[in-house]
Amino acid sequence: MLYSNQQAYQAYREIRDTITSNLKPYKVVLFVPMEAQALCGYAVLANLLTIDAPHPHPFKACFLSQYEDVNEHYRSEERNETASYRIFVMINCGGDRNMKKLFNLSASPNLKVYIFDSKRSWHHKNIDEDNKQVILVDNSITDDKTRGRPVSCQFYEIAFQNGTRIESEQRLWWAIIGLTSAFLNKEIKDEVYEVYTKLYVEEIRRIGETLPNGIRLAVQEEYPLIRLEY
């Protein structure tokens, strides 16, 4: 089923509550492709879950070089009698694949899959309202439905809604790197980049005044302006 952009924080709460309501670790698995935008999104989400979790190992991360890695990991866990996962989180991947088929969800009624994916298109099964085991979170910020915003930006906004202030300069840095990667790889439109550039400039100024030990964040030349010099 499809969660709207406004329901992104609700999706995070559901993931977080699964962790906080279980004493045993590794109820949640994060699937992360080996590319900059996904890795930055993972860094922000992992930071949030670690802060909110009641135990030191709130999740397990599986880093992917190809979709076959998902199958290999899941099949190995199916054979593990001690595995009792509740949630799989797909970070910047999975939107275009049938998650119900990939994870054989019909045979695992207690398992849910959350998808945070800036890429398009979406597999129709993932947004089927009758498919309650798959939650695809829409991250569009414009009327353009062909591209979403970077997942690092989406998770940074979730952190803000969560009221998490610890190590906020690290999360801001990861969000900026993810945004820059998406822009350089033409994964977002110019207007999306401009919206977030203005937002993060203000965040840098705000956070830079409150960091300890004399550390300060500063805004230097912005990338498109640097390009014009060459």
TrEMBL record:
Protein name per UniProt: 10625_t:CDS:1
A single cellular component GO annotation? DNA replication preinitiation complex
Which Pfam families does this one have? CDC45
Keyword set includes Cell cycle = yes
Q: Where does the record place it?
A: Nucleus
Top-level taxon of the source organism: Eukaryota
**Record family assignment:** Belongs to the CDC45 family.
Q: Does the keyword Cell cycle apply?
A: yes
Gene Ontology biological process terms from the UniProt entry: DNA replication initiation; double-strand break repair via break-induced replication; mitotic DNA replication preinitiation complex assembly
Keywords in UniProt for this one? Answer: Cell cycle, DNA replication, Nucleus
Q: A GO molecular-function term, please?
A: DNA replication origin binding
User: Where mainly found?
Assistant: nucleus
Species per Swiss-Prot/TrEMBL record = Paraglomus brasilianum
Q: What is the lineage of its organism?
A: Eukaryota, Fungi, Fungi incertae sedis, Mucoromycota, Glomeromycotina
